[in-house]
Amino acid sequence: MENLDYRALAVLDAVASHGSFEKAANALGISQSAVSQRIKALEDAVGRLLIVRGSPAEATGLGQRLVSHYRNVKLMEAALDIDLGHETSMPEIAMAVDAASLATWLPLALRPLLSPPRCQLDVECAEREVALHLMREGAVFGCVAARAEVPAPAAAGSSATPLGAIRYVCVAAPAFAGHWFGDGFSVEALALAPAVVQDRDLMARFLAREAGYVRPFPHHTLPLSTAFNDTVFGGMAYGLLPYLQAAQALAQGALVDLLPGRYIDVELDWHAWELDTPFTHALNEQIVSTARRYLVQP
């Protein structure tokens, strides 16, 4: 693919980011017809469809890879401008992160990058399969993802760095624990007490390993969020919470550990493209060093 038109790639990036030809035109300060013409010219040049026209407009696989290439070039140009002493706008870096990390240790890794601001971050909440897909398609520079039982090899041109494990404990509000588990964390109680889960398989593994419970269990399914926390703290269900998130409430008596000393760990990895710029170096260093400070290490 020779002589890529980077002005057209900028338009492709805008359409993919905004999900609309009209919004891309407004963001770029050009007409909608100019946006359409540049996308069509780029598609003619590569001989492939790059944008699926719809609501929203979405990049195809090749379109997303071209957007990723364009963003990486902009990152390298920004780094070169800084080296040359030129003024430059803050580069954009996209990443995908699991909900538990976003709720606990990840914001601590971002603080040095955001104050003072050194880049514009676009962080998407996504669990393992979606996060790895976004990374391999080039939609994000990197992702924090749970490790599979049989880890897949890193994509060519990328790396996978172990971060440690996020530890989950099984907790409930005191009144809920007294009502449902007054006689202990028994098989009989587990058949009746409602749980709240983000990942049903994680709870099933915990119950099988720690309580010998292998039957279906009553549960609500919610993303790890304010609603999930409210369900546990409000005494409506028991659930697995990251210890980093539950520690203060356990110390204050707002939550009860239903099986003290028992837990389940989820190993995390940082997957990232090997892109050599000051911004990506800083992000890599902050992610890895912060994770190894707060997560459970081997």
Which helices and strands, and how do they pair?
Layout: H1 6-18, H2 21-28, H3 32-46, E1 51-52, E2 58-59, H4 61-83, E3 92-97, H5 99-103, H6 106-114, E4 120-125, H7 128-136, E5 142-146, E6 158-172, H8 174-180, H9 187-190, E7 195-197, H10 200-211, E8 219-221, H11 226-233, E9 238-242, H12 243-252, E10 256-257, E11 264-273, H13 278-294
Parallel strand pairs: 3-4, 3-5, 7-8, 7-9
Antiparallel strand pairs: 1-2, 5-11, 6-9, 6-10, 6-11
Helix pairs in contact: 1-2, 1-3, 1-4, 2-3, 6-13
Describe it:
The chain has 298 residues and is α/β, with parallel strands linked by helices. The protein folds into three domains: 6-63, Arc Repressor Mutant, subunit A (Orthogonal Bundle); 73-160 and 272-294, Periplasmic binding protein-like II (D-Maltodextrin-Binding Protein, domain 2, 3-Layer(aba) Sandwich); 167-265, 3-Layer(aba) Sandwich (D-Maltodextrin-Binding Protein, domain 2), CATH 3.40.190.10. The chain has 13 helices and eleven strands. The protein has helices at 6-18, 21-28, 32-46, 61-83, 99-103, 106-114, 128-136, 174-180, 187-190, 200-211, 226-233, 243-252, 278-294; strands at residues 51-52, 58-59, 92-97, 120-125, 142-146, 158-172, 195-197, 219-221, 238-242, 256-257, 264-273. The strands form two sheets. Strands 3, 4, 5, 6, 7, 8, 9, 10 and 11 form a nine-stranded mixed β-sheet that branches. A two-stranded antiparallel ribbon has the order 1-2. Strand 7 (195-197), helix 10 (200-211) and strand 8 (219-221) form a beta-alpha-beta unit. Helix 2 (21-28) packs across helix 3. The longest helix is centred in the first third of the chain and has 23 residues, at 61-83. The chain is elongated. The protein starts with 5 loop residues before the first helix and ends with a helix. The mean pLDDT is 88.
